Amino acid sequence: MAKPLLVCKCVAWSAYSAATAEHHISTYNHRVSLQTRHTCLVTVQDVGLWHKLATMSAEQGYIRQAVYCWSKFLSKERDDFEARFTRAQLYGVLREGWKAKGQFQQLLGKEPGHPEVVKELARLYNEDGDPSTAIELLETQLRDHYDKLDLTHINMLADLYINLGHHDNAVKLVNRTEEVFCSQGDLPIDLQVRRGTCYLNMGDQASAVADLQQLLDHPVVEDEVSYLDLYLLVVEQACKAGLDKFAVAYMDKIRATPGLLEDVKDWQLVIDGYCRADKHDVAIEMYKQKLAELAQQDERYFPTVLALARLYAGIGQKSAATELLSQLDNQLSQGDITLPDARGVQLSLFIAKGSIHLELGQKEDFAACLLPHYSTLLQLAENNAAIVKAANQVGCCTTH
Fold it and tell me: Element (H or E) spanning 307, and its range?
């Protein structure tokens, strides 16, 4: 095994190095301490120093080096469970899942049902595209190691059932958890929301609403605990089930809490939800607010303008859509807007803009939008039906 850079053996300097490094630790100069250890030690007998060096390497982001140091430590302390657990986690960070799983399987052989090992293994198998093995691990924990079971295992298993569409299994699991774990208190809200979304998918709207309404008793953010993921889950699943009006209360609470919708997908989910619930005025206000936040040089600016223009066109506000597209043309002609580097992405934006012009009955504007890209359209048309259609429409508009 190749030694990481800077790690060397220097027996004569080990005592000096240890003292110097300890001084840097005490003065919070961890980086200098780490470099001191790397440069001037260590002997194989310095087991405690390997432990400290492994910990410090990981803290400083030197993951490969941390694995090396833990391996040196474990060559002397073979039965140290926590060290083996930590090294296995670091293999996962390095995306060496097969090593991580192998290490965790060994630990599980030594301590069957160890709760944290089971969680790590289930997560790794699921991330590697093997949810069935992850489910098997968690079901074994539920069946054979009930004394080592916690609510995280239940949450993980419920999520796996839901992701595979096994909503009835998820409901049974949560019901059993409520009966056994929560006889003296309330079911945790995350499990209650999961059960509610399962009821939605099973067509039991009354039971779903009874569960999901409990979330409204919780602020979206409370004492640094965020329930945003649960609120978004309710919005997504309620809209999917046709309960658009029901989702409005959850979207309103999200909007009322500043600084939450930083992720584009989350923001778009809420806007789409308002549109589905015929709250177009709210959706328009969200688009305007986003455009005010974005610089014209931001690559998100162009598609956001198009989305708002399409919304205007879709609800019959043709003059507002036309005005917005005219402003966009001016910004483009002045070079104020930054376009994506990829030619195909640029083209897709102009095709989208052209389609809005067509929806507004503006054939000349449609042609003017895409005519500069006509040769590119023809070059890319062979394997893209949408481009073929756009190219044909450009041809028709320019010949009439």
Answer: helix 301-314
Count of CB atoms within 10 A of residue 195's CB? 27
Instruction: Single out the residue of 283, 197, 290, 262 nearest to residue 236, CA to CA.
Output: 197
More confident residue, 121 or 342: 121
User: How many angstroms separate the CA atoms of 270 and 263, rounded?
Assistant: 11
Write down the pLDDT at residue 40.
45
Residue 397 has pLDDT above 70, yes or no: no
| Cα 319 off chain centre by | 38
3-state secondary structure of 226: strand
| 3-state class (DSSP) for residue 94 | coil
Single-letter amino acid code for the residue at 80: D
Measured CA to CA, the distance from residue 391 to residue 380 in angstroms comes to 10
What single-letter amino acid sits at 225?
Answer: V
Please give the pLDDT value at position 386. 54
Residues in the chain: 400
How many C-beta atoms surround the C-beta of residue 230 within 10 A?
Answer: 21
Q: In which region does residue 338 sit, left (phi positive, over 0), alpha (psi from -120 to 50) or beta (all else)?
A: beta
Q: Helix axis angle, 264-276 relative to 244-255, nearest 10°?
A: 140
What CA–CA distance (Å, rounded) separates 361 from 363? 6
- Could you read off the pLDDT of 195-229 as tens digits, one per residue? 999 999 999 999 999 999 999 999 999 888 899 99
The β-bridge relationship of strands 225-226 and 221-222 is antiparallel
Question: How many CB atoms are located within 10 Å of the residue 381 CB?
Answer: 16
Instruction: List the one residue out of 41, 44, 72, 38 whose CA is nearest residue 56.
Output: 38
CA of 99: how far to CAs of 102, 152, 340, 348, in Å?
Answer: 5, 24, 40, 43
Single-letter residue type at 10: C
d(CA 81, CA 118): 14
Phi, psi of 104 (to 5 degrees): -65, -35
Is the pTM above the cut of 0.90?
no
3-class SS of residue 222: strand
Q: Give strand pairing partners of 226.
A: 221
- The single residue listed with the structure tokens 């060290």 is 83
Separation CA 227–CA 285 (nearest Å): 24
